Structures
1.
Amino acid sequence: MVIDMHAHILPKTDHGSDSMECSIQQCKKAAAAGVETIVATPHFYMDIDIIDYFLMRREEAYINLTKTVKYPKILKAAEVTLFPGIEKLDRLDELCIEGTDYILLEMPNTTGDDWVYQSIFEIKGKRGLRPIIAHIDRCSKEKAKRLLEMDVLIQVNAAAFTSFKKSYYVMKLFKKNKVHVLGSDAHGFADEYLDFHQAQKKLGSLADTVMSNAERIIHNEFIKK
Ligand SMILES: [Fe+2]
């Protein structure tokens, strides 16, 4: 099964899609790239949003989109940017990929702050959730090194395969099972799905493992690091 683990395709839920037309286009491009399931991950920024409103907005967008789009299958989730105190947020578990304990976490733009790693640790230990770190290919070397040492799952953006240097770097990580899943991180009219298709080709036989990891995640099964 081909699963896109990270995409901004729910209409008017974040800056990923400003209309139903855009979302429908995005889903068509995903289907053309062979995607069977899209994990929809609108941004959640704790400093400018209220979780109750976010969940309502996401639900409404999901209902509206799935009235029209029957394929690919869409799962509700979020891309949760880390902010100080987020590990204590009420209803945080509702930002997980639906039906699972897996939560996609985005690193903040700050550099080298210890609270970030403590927060991930507590989301895992105290809240009992299973973090997936979003697009490690966009993190600084220093952040990536610390994240790779943690007991968390890691997502890579398909766009990383468009750069020779990054492609080499992420392939090495996929081969060592240090990173686990692939996402389009589609925004706007979703040209990212061309990258997604190419990335799977470049992964070759590893693509099966990557997609099998994604399938296990959406069924809330454990993945050994
Ligand atoms: Fe994203």
2.
Amino acid sequence: MEQIWKDLYQAAKAVQNPREISERIYAGGVAAAIESESGKIYTGVCVDTSSSLGICAERNAMFNMITNGENAIRRVLAIMPDGKTGAPCGACREFMTQLMMGRYHEVEIMIDYEQEKILTLDQLTPEWWL
Ligand SMILES: [Zn+2]
């Protein structure tokens, strides 16, 4: 496995911290790390709320990257509450596609860290509408 995937896993693991933020907000059960085009790693955790005000870990990590002045991603890894990596939800796939217009097929996503199963975004969701 390439070192960057190990770095992404460690970065996500470091911020995974499931906890109740308030009576209506639970966060940190899922943690994500992304590698930006510059090679930097950005992390984010899921924030679950009432009235669907929260955000997935993957998009939170991408928002972190955007906040820090970058615009493009290379790799995405998310650790689920059970400790295994998993695929992003439909909303995150859509966001990644809109972020990486014309290049989303290059985005690599860790599906199963233990099995070293990696898919590109277009393999994960073929026949995109964009
Ligand atoms: Zn999502």
